[in-house]
């Protein structure tokens, strides 16, 4: 476990000098830590374009990564382990704001936020029983407030429920 | 004398600004809880939030004014599947921090019927302002602790209810005899 954590910290240090942004850093950290690859999402470019046009929830600059079959990692369902992993994720310009765990649904949500010009940049990392989702999006204040007040639905606010 | 006063004030300033610390023992409850919520908004985030609020719109202007004085908001909430998963001893370490001045217990509501127990502690910030608020909502299957650090008008407390994960408080602050309290 310590070697994997070390790996995350090494990624963290290299990410500090990288130009590919916080989203890629989190994606790489999850890939390295859980030994998974993000799922290719067809037509993601189209979805991003639609978001730019429609601005649901005042959103723009949408990035999404989904990881499936995470259950194969033995410590994935351990919430304390998730906390330790996410505590090691240090994002430039984004502060950890909300953390929720639900034993009932098996979901954990981590929300980071920071200033992005005239809007707020928000990073939502959700771990569900069998998949993880990373969302980076720029939102207006009202959306940020709504997300803080209902953090458990934060991920679904931007990508809709995949179960529906 | 003036230098002594300034030196004393400087020495006490960190204590004055001190936030309530949620003890590690409280974190153990997370292992028993069905759902946990942890919200931490520091001064940077609160100032950022304030920047997006209008000075002209009535509600937004009020919220902006409110946020300007705040240093942090921390909300820790645990929901349990059954009653009796936590005890008053779990919260005693938090209560111990607000036993003495400048803190005072302003509201204490205990319902024998529902088992609900709400305690509100205010920190005197001087000049009729609050320097901080600690709210402990203890229900049989739910425990919520809210700590607000910073300066705010008591009348603004109601405005915070329902925002930032802070539970709505159905408490009439006019009993405190403060002007403008809701």
Q: What does the oligomeric state look like here?
A: heterodimer
Instruction: State the strand order across the main sheet of chain A.
Output: 1-5-4-3-2
- One letter per element, helices H and strands E, the order of chain A comes to HHHEHEEEEHH
Order of helices and strands of chain B: HHHEHHEHEEEEH
Return the structural class of chain B: alpha+beta
- How many helices of chain B in DSSP terms? 7
Shape of chain B: globular
Can you summarize the main beta sheet of chain A?
A: 5 strands, antiparallel
Structure summary, number of beta strands of chain B = 6
| Strand numbers in spatial order across the main sheet of chain B | 1-2-6-5-4-3
Tertiary shape of chain A? globular
Distance between the termini of chain B: 41 Å
Mean pLDDT of chain A: 76
Largest sheet of chain B: 6 strands, antiparallel
Work out the radius of gyration of chain A.
Answer: 15 Å
Distance between the termini of chain A: 36 Å
How much of the sequence lies in strands of chain A comes to 25-35%
What is the number of domains of chain B?
Answer: 1
Largest interface: A-B, 24 and 23 residues
Count every helix of chain A, treating DSSP H or I runs of 4 or more residues as helices: 6
Summary tags:
heterodimer; A: 164 residues; alpha+beta; five-stranded antiparallel sheet; B: 182 residues; 7 helices; disordered C terminus
Give the secondary structure arrangement, pairings included.
The complex is a heterodimer of chains A (164) and B (182).
Chain A lengths: L1 H14 L5 H14 L9 H11 L5 E9 L10 H9 L7 E8 L4 E10 L2 E9 L3 E9 L1 H9 L4 H6 L5
Antiparallel strand pairs in A: 1-5, 2-3, 3-4, 4-5
Helix pairs in contact in A: 1-2
Chain B lengths: L1 H15 L7 H4 L1 H4 L2 E7 L1 H9 L6 H11 L1 E10 L8 H9 L6 E8 L6 E10 L2 E11 L2 E11 L4 H4 L22
Antiparallel strand pairs in B: 1-2, 2-6, 3-4, 4-5, 5-6
Helix pairs in contact in B: 4-5
């Amino acid at each position: 476990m310590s070697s994997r954590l070390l790996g995350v910290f090494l990624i963290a240090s290299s990410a500090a000098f990288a130009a590919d942004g916080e989203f890629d850093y989190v994606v790489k950290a999850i890939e390295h830590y859980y030994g998974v690859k993000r799922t290719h999402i067809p037509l993601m470019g189209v979805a991003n374009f639609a978001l730019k046009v429609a601005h649901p929830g005042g959103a723009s600059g949408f990035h999404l990564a989904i990881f499936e079959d995470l259950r194969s990692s033995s410590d994935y369902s351990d919430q304390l382990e998730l906390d330790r992993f996410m505590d090691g994720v240090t994002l430039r310009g984004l502060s950890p704001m909300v953390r929720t765990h639900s034993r009932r649904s098996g979901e954990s949500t981590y929300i980071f936020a920071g200033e992005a010009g005239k809007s707020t940049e928000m990073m939502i990392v959700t771990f569900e029983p069998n998949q993880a989702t990373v969302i980076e999006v720029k939102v207006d204040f009202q959306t940020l407030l709504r997300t803080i007040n209902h953090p458990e639905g934060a991920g679904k606010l931007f990508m809709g429920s995949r179960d529906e | 004398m003036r230098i002594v006063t300034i030196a004393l004030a400087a020495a006490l300033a960190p204590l004055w600004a001190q936030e309530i610390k949620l003890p590690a023992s409280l974190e153990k409850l997370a292992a028993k809880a069905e759902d946990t919520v942890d919200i931490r908004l520091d001064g940077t985030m609160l100032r950022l939030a304030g920047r997006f609020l209008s000075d002209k719109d009535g509600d937004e202007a009020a919220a902006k004014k409110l946020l300007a004085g705040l240093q942090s908001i921390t909300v820790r909430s645990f929901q349990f599947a059954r009653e009796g998963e936590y005890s008053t001893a779990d919260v005693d370490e938090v209560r111990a921090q607000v036993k003495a001045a400048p803190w005072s217990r302003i509201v204490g509501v205990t319902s024998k019927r529902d088992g609900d127990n709400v305690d509100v502690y205010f920190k005197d910030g001087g000049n009729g302002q609050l320097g901080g608020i600690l709210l402990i909502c203890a229900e049989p299957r739910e425990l919520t602790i809210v700590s607000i650090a910073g300066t705010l008008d008591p009348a603004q407390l109601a405005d915070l209810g329902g925002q930032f994960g802070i539970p709505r408080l159905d408490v009439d602050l006019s009993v405190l005899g403060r002007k403008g309290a809701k």
